[in-house]
Amino acid sequence: EAGVAQSPRYKIIEKRQSVAFWCNPISGHATLYWYQQILGQGPKLLIQFQNNGVVDDSQLPKDRFSAERLKGVDSTLKIQPAKLEDSAVYLCASSLEVGVREQFFGPGTRLTVL
Amino acid sequence: GENVEQHPSTLSVQEGDSAVIKCTYSDSASNYFPWYKQELGKRPQLIIDIRSNVGEKKDQRIAVTLNKTAKHFSLHITETQPEDSAVYFCAAFITGNQFYFGTGTSLTVIP
Hints:
heterodimer; A: mainly beta; seven-stranded mixed sheet; four-stranded antiparallel sheet; 0% helix; 48% strand; B: mainly beta; six-stranded mixed sheet; globular
């Protein structure tokens, strides 16, 4: 079974630039999560999708972050404009559905904002 | 919302010794508690989990205990090996809600 795919794996940008991350969940997984993991901390949920609908985006900084999952499969997370404090690893995870607890993580995208 | 605290933040043990990592949570509605292992530069991987209706679960050298009354759960690794060196995260999950992660414990097993 293929795992959660993410790209790019690394990204370096200057502050105020824009960046986008892509995630392809495990086939058949309806629930998709985006997490931000700052160095030395645990993952923090940014947004959770069930199919193409948003379940929880309460911790997403909506003035600069946006995410979509238009067809209920792939998802993109965008930051515009980026700030220095956005430097982190952005993890995508998926699970079969909201009620199924086990989630599988992708390899993450390491973002460095200079 | 839920608040998960994890201790210690770093832990060094001699190979063959045991390692214990503890987490506390605040919301009694939390009903699922997974533990993840994250090696440097890699994705978090689920190593063991426990549901709120169980007090203890074992899987070979790894065990997790849950005390619902005190709202804490612990990861126990016995006979540690160098390949156990990694960052370990606990999490608490509330049905219909989300996962709340601890801040991580960096475990180093000294050969």
